[in-house]
TrEMBL record:
This is Arylesterase. The keyword Coiled coil does not apply. InterPro entries: Ester_Hydrolysis_Enzymes, SGNH_hydro, SGNH_hydro_sf. It comes from Shewanella pealeana (strain ATCC 700345 / ANG-SQ1). The keyword Kinase does not apply. CDD domains: Lysophospholipase_L1_like. Its EC number is 3.1.1.2. GO terms for molecular function: arylesterase activity; phosphatidylcholine lysophospholipase activity. Residues 38-192 form the SGNH hydrolase-type esterase domain. It holds the Pfam family Lipase_GDSL_2. Keywords: Hydrolase.
Length: 209
C-alpha cells in the first residue's frame, strides 16, 4: 500500500514534520533556558564597581540562553541570605542556585556551627523545590588562625557530603594572592579580576545544568 496517496499528501506530511521538528527545537531551547539564582555577598554583588562590570553580568553574556538573577547583597551573612531566600525563590523560580555565603560570617568571627545551621536550612529550602545547588567554598583570611579557618572549610565539605550537593572551590583563592586583581581593601576583587571569575564559574554552571 502506498504511503502517500498523492503528491499533495506528501507535501502535507513534509510540512507537518517540519513543524514538529521546529517545535522540538524550541522546546529543547526552553528546557535549557533554566533560571539561575545567585545568593551571595559582596564578592558577587559587584562591590566597588558598576554592576554591569561584575562577573555575574559577564557570565550572563557567556550564557545568553539562561536567565541569571543576582540576589547578592554586599555585607550579607548566611543568616541574611536565609531570611531573603524564600522570597527570592518565589520570584525567580530557579532551576539552579549558587550559594556564595559565609565570608562575612567568618570575618565577624561567627561560630562555624551557626554558619552550618544557616547553610543547611538554605540547602533544605532549595532541595524541597527540587532546585540544583552549587555550593561555593569560602576561605577566611589567615590572620584568623589555622584552627578557625579549618573549621570554616570543614563546614562546606560536610554540607556537600551530607546533602549531596556540588562543592565548588573558592573562586577567590588564586585571585586574592595577586594584588593587581584586588581592590585596596585587600578583600574584594577589582574590575580586572571579573573576567577571570566569570571564566572560572562558566564550566561549573554548565556542568550543574
Amino acid at each position: 500500500m502506498a504511503l502517500f496517496s498523492d503528491i499533495g499528501s506528501f507535501f502535507d506530511f513534509k510540512n507537518r514534520l517540519g513543524g514538529l521538528l521546529l517545535l522540538l527545537v524550541f522546546s529543547s531551547f526552553g528546557l535549557n533556558a533554566a533560571p539561575i539564582l545567585i545568593l551571595g555577598d559582596s564578592l558577587s554583588a559587584s562591590y566597588g564597581m558598576p554592576e554591569d562590570q561584575g562577573w555575574v553580568q559577564l557570565l550572563r553574556e557567556k550564557m545568553p540562553e539562561h536567565s541569571i538573577i543576582n540576589g547578592s547583597v554586599s555585607g550579607e551573612t548566611s543568616a541574611g541570605g536565609l531570611r531573603r531566600l524564600p522570597a527570592l525563590l518565589d520570584s525567580a523560580q530557579p532551576k539552579l542556585l549558587l550559594v556564595e555565603l559565609g565570608g562575612n560570617d567568618g570575618l565577624r568571627g561567627f561560630p562555624p556551627k551557626q554558619l552550618k545551621n544557616n547553610l543547611t536550612k538554605i540547602i533544605e529550602l532549595a532541595k524541597a523545590q527540587q532546585i540544583t545547588i552549587l555550593l561555593s567554598e569560602i576561605m577566611v583570611p589567615p590572620n584568623y588562625g589555622p584552627r578557625y579557618a579549618s573549621q570554616i572549610s570543614t563546614v562546606y565539605k560536610e554540607l556537600a557530603e551530607e546533602h549531596g550537593v556540588t562543592l565548588m572551590p573558592f573562586f577567590m583563592e588564586q585571585i586574592v594572592t595577586d594584588s593587581t586583581l584586588m581592590q585596596r581593601d585587600g578583600i574584594h576583587p577589582n574590575q580586572k579580576a571579573q573576567p577571570a571569575i566569570a571564566e572560572f564559574m562558566l564550566p561549573w554552571f554548565e556542568q550543574a545544568l
